[in-house]
Every structure is written in C-alpha cells, then in structure tokens.
Write a structure and sequence with these properties.
single chain; 475 residues; alpha/beta; 7-stranded antiparallel β-sheet; 20 strands; 37% helix
C-alpha cells in the first residue's frame, strides 16, 4: 500500500494539471464570501445538468469542515468528500478531495475586491482519474477530456453566483425572513431552499420522515393528518410545494386519487393549522399548475382566463380551493407553474435520452403549445412573490414565449446537435403512457405570465434556446 501511495504521489507531482477561472461579481468581498459560507451554496454551485445527491454539508468553510455528495458514474454511484484546508475570510478559502474520482484535487478560491466589485479566482490543481492510463487518454485528446468538463462546470458556477447575488441584492434592504418549506426534497424545493439560504434567510423544512439531528427540520405526516400546529409559530412565510408526481406513473384510478389527495389534503392540513395560529405568517405560497386551464388549443391564457375541463383542472381547482378560506391578514399566493426545465428531471429529463440518441422529435402532430419556464426563473419568480409584499393571488409561472411542441423539439435538437425529425405519434403515446401521456404531452396550453410582467419581474430566460443552453451546459 505504501509503495502504491508513493507511486501515485510521484506520478501526480510530475503530471499535475492546472485550471483557472475568474468570475466578476457586482458586490463587495464580504457579501460574496458570505454567499459561499451558506450551506445552500454547495447545491447552487452544482452544475444544473449533474444528478448529484448531497450527503452532508458542514455549516462553515473553516479548516476541517467537509462537504460530501454522491453522483452517478456509469452504473455506480461515486462519493466525493471535500475537506476545507484554508480559511481567511473574506478573501480566501480552499478545499482538497479526500475521496473521489480524481487521483488528486486541490481547489483554491481567491476573492479580490476592487472598487466594490469582487473578482472570484478559482485555481484548481488536479491529477486525472485512473492515474497513468487516465493521463495518457487525456493527453491523446490534447488535454480536452477533463478540461472541457471543468470549463462547463465553472461557467455554470459563474452564472449561478452572479445571478443569485443580483437577485438577492434586489431585496437587500428588506428584512430576512423565517421560512418553512413543505415539499423541499423535490426538484424545485431543493433549489429554492438552497437559494433562500444563500440569501441569509432562516429556512426550515417540513419533512415526512424523522427530522435529522441538528438540522432545521420539522415533522408532519399529511397522509395521516399529523401536524403539531404549535411548530408553525414564529414563521413569517410558509411555502407548500408538495404532491405526488403527475408524470411519474401511468394514471390508474388509484394513482389519480393519490395525485389529488396528496395535494388537497396536505394543503387543507396546513391551512387549518395556519388559521388557528396566534401570530399568523405574513404569506402562504401554494404550488399549483397550468393544468388548471385544461386543453385550450391556440387560445392565449392569462390569470383572468376561465378554468378548463377534465381531471387536471379539477385537481388544480380543489388544490387552490383547499386554502381559499384563510383570513385576509395572510397574503395568499398561488403558483400556476408550467413545464419546469431541468436537465436532471421533469419532462425535459425524460426527453434527453432519445434526443441524445438521435431518436427525438415532436409528439403527436407537434402543433400543441408548450408553456415552459427555466428552473432558475421558477426559483427567482417565487423569490419575487415572497419578498414583494404587494403580490397576492394567482400567478402564471411560465416564460413569456411559449412554443409549439414541434418548435420545442427542433430547438432541443439544435442545442444537443442532434436530429429531431422522428415524431412520436399520438396513438403510440396513448399505448405507452395511457391517459397520463395524452394529457401531459398532447394537450395544448398557451399560457402567458401577465401578472409577473406587470409587477416588473424580468425573466432570465425569456426564450427557449438560451434556457436549454444554460440548463444543459451547451452554450
């Protein structure tokens, strides 16, 4: 073992790679360093196309603290343990890979402030995986294999850091909030909690398992109606994003009941508890969906449009109605979200494999409208509605430029540099996925975010191509 260790050490010394990336942030070094110090920064800095699971994150960057996550590497899950080795706030911190795929990895972060603007300089020294064999493969490719991956990763980190700091600064003069989030483990909830944490808010999770010791977690069980109303006292904001996945399984009678009940029962339980609180929260934000509008062809749909017909409109109506009787002193916000774009899940996540294999294309006749929103715009829009105390009622969380399904397929193919001309006929979708596939892929909804635009919200991704490029790291 000692001989092998020495060989790795000598080989790594003579074959060490270096990578450097600079990010300019419109904020002072102290504020920027504080963003990094929050636990949520780890999640926010993870490339949006990487399927990574956070195992543990210490609540500081001080020497000896660790952050641990798992990610898939082929058929197996690889664990990465990063340990912090340097800490000089607000200008420097560093970490090294204790366990992971690289033979070695050392990452220095320098924060250099000049005139109120901060340059974040990332310097990485690494030795590629598999030692001599990995080094040979990388050199045969001109050093591009790992370097290209690093360039993608650090570009994504740069964009997230700059954008998050900018959005937090919009409400820099507002008091920080104490926020409770239900549905925090989902695709949207995970990123929302991390983003709010980096903004200095005190964020707690409402979970259905036993709370982890030392973590800001509280227990409830909406299926059995278990919720100690007393644990809600002291929160000025409650956000409910929970519910069974709509597109996870075929819709049997039992599945449709679970989809409805998981949303309606949990919202009813929270609403009753809030109504009985001595000091009620300032705002209650409840997830909903554009399924409220049903299949509407080419009709332009706004928050003023009437409800549609069918299973999804009925679910959304009951869902929103479950909290409609809260007193007026609680500001109430409904989030009618469109198709949220994420490279790791949701509708886009399911489309990626066939498109990457060159077998992607429009679904059905391709004429149906798709109302989409990038994951970051979903997060930033929720933040806007949380912090703007005049925001209340129903909001469509969709990008201002919906596209037809044929146009979506063509744009995704262009971003992936793959053909997108293999249509999936409607009857095949019905055979494969049943009613669920028909409702989620063949029905048409052209939804516009009028109220968000009227309130001055500026979309990060108003057009589809830039949203897909950012989501997949393919600029």
């Amino acid at each position: 073992f000692q001989t092998t260790y020495e060989i790795r050490k000598i080989w790594g010394f003579f074959n060490m790679y270096q990578y450097k990336h600079e990010t300019v942030v419109d904020a002072d070094a102290e504020s920027t360093f504080a963003w990094f110090e929050h636990e949520g920064s780890f999640c926010r800095l993870m490339p949006p196309w990487e399927v990574a699971e956070e195992v543990r994150a210490d609540d500081s960057l001080e020497v000896g603290s660790q952050r641990v996550f798992r990610f898939p590497m082929g058929p197996i899950k690889m664990t990465w343990v990063a340990e912090h080795t340097g800490y000089k706030p607000p200008h420097f911190f560093s970490d090294t890979m204790v366990k992971g795929p690289f033979w070695s990895w050392n990452h220095d972060h320098h924060l250099i402030e000049e005139g109120g603007v901060t340059r974040v300089v990332d310097e990485v020294k690494y030795q590629v995986p598999f030692g001599p064999l990995g080094n040979l493969a990388d050199r045969v490719l001109g050093g591009r294999l790992v370097r290209r991956r690093l360039s993608q990763m650090f570009t994504a980190r740069e964009l997230r850091l700059k954008r998050d700091m900018a959005h937090h600064s919009k409400f820099g003069g507002s008091p920080r909030r104490k926020i409770l989030v239900a549905g925090s483990s989902g695709m949207i909830g995970t990123q929302l909690v991390a983003f709010l944490d980096t903004g200095g808010h005190e964020v707690w999770r409402l979970v259905r398992r036993s709370p982890k010791e030392g973590k800001k977690e509280l227990f409830w069980n909406p299926e059995s109606g278990e919720l100690d109303a007393g644990i809600l006292e002291g929160f000025d904001s409650i956000i409910h994003l929970g519910g069974e996945g709509i597109g996870d399984k075929r819709w049997s009678k039992k599945r449709k009941s679970a989809i409805r009940d998981s949303r309606v029962d949990s919202t009813t339980l929270l609403s009753k508890a809030i109504a009985n609180m001595d000091k009620k929260p300032e705002v209650f934000i409840v997830a909903s969906a554009i399924g409220w509008y049903g299949d509407r062809g080419d009709e332009e749909l706004t928050e003023e449009s009437t409800i549609g017909e069918g299973f999804l409109p009925e679910v959304c109506s009951d869902w929103e109605g479950a909290s409609a009787n809260l007193p007026d002193e609680v500001r109430h916000v409904y989030l009618r979200s469109g198709i949220v774009l994420s490279g790791t899940g949701g509708a886009l996540g399911k489309m990626l494999l066939p498109f990457k294999m060159g077998a992607g294309g429009p679904m059905g006749n391709g004429k149906q409208w798709m109302s989409w929103i990038s994951l970051d715009d979903e997060i930033y829009a929720i933040h806007h509605l949380l912090m703007e105390t005049g925001s209340k009622g129903v909001y469509n969380l969709t990008a201002p430029n919906p596209v037809r399904q044929k146009g979506f397929a063509k744009t995704l193919g262009r971003v992936l540099r793959r053909p997108a001309f293999a249509p999936l006929p409607g009857f095949v979708i019905k055979i494969l996925f049943g009613e669920m596939g028909v409702k989620l892929t063949l029905e048409s909804q052209k939804v516009l975010p009028n109220r968000l635009l009227e309130e001055g919200y500026e979309f990060l991704h108003p057009d589809l191509e830039t949203a897909l490029q950012d989501t997949l790291g393919l600029w």
